Amino acid sequence: MQMSGMEARAPASCASKSYAYKASLIGSAHRFELTEEGLSWHIGGRSGLWVYGEISAIRLSYRPVSMQQHRFRADVSHADGGRIAILSTSWQTAALMAPQDYGYRDFIVELHGRMAKAGSQAVLTAGLGRVTYAAALALLACLAVAMAGLFIRALMIGEFAGMLFIVGFAALFTWQVGGFIRRNQPRTYRFDALPEDLLP
Question: How does pLDDT run across 1-50, given as a tens digit for each residue?
């Protein structure tokens, strides 16, 4: 039987209200659902329901790992001090961490929409904490100085193979780490303007 347009769109609408991922190979999945009352969550043997107005903060960030470079994270905090993490990837096998880009994005966007509708006063931040970000920049500056010193030394002794290696390594490092630093710049955002670079 051919479905009408409204019926065909129903599964996508339902999918945007729930989300699950496995944080590790062992243990059950972390399950979340957006209900009329609030954010319902089930993590291991714990569960709870956070009313949208009681969610005090959300931090979105870009968190690549060796097995999955395209990985995002949302840290959701409650007024009583609790915090839960929602990741955009899920462990499938010992060698596979699968992305769940569309499910994650839909869920996070829907969560923000429901919080805004509830009149939430939550603090919305993006990227790393300012202290962590400053430490990362300082470390990158030290590495840049060290790489420049090695390059100059290789140039002075005529070690052209070493120079090419340093240039290649610096380019690869900049390509991989540069995206992490750029995406995770500390900033705030609004419910109606989520940071696109921190969503799949």
Answer: 333 333 333 344 443 489 999 987 777 889 999 999 999 999 988 999 99
Q: How many CB atoms lie under 10 A from the CB of residue 65? A: 10
Name residue, tokens 């291991």: 44
What is the 3 state secondary structure string of 39-105? EEEEECCEEEEEEHHHEEEEEEEECCECCECCCEEEEEEECCCCEEEEECEEEEECCEEEECHHHHH
For strands 89-93 and 96-99, give the pairing: antiparallel
Pairwise CA distance, residues 47 & 52, whole Å? 16
CA angle 178, 163, 175 (to 5 degrees): 15
Q: Of 107, 127, 139, give the one whose Cα is nearest residue 21.
A: 107
* Closest C-alpha to 166, from 192, 144, 137: 144
Q: How far is CA 120 from the centre of its chain?
A: 22
Q: pTM score, two decimals? A: 0.74
Q: Is the Cβ–Cβ distance between 180 and 127 less than 8 Å? A: no
| Greatest extent of the chain over all pairs of C-alpha atoms, in Å | 77
Q: pLDDT of 64-109, one tens digit each?
A: 876 667 899 999 999 999 999 999 999 887 667 788 999 999 999 9
User: Is residue 53 over pLDDT 60?
Assistant: yes
> How far is CA 194 from its chain centroid?
13
- Yes or no: say if 200 and 60 are a contact pair by the CB < 8 Å rule: no
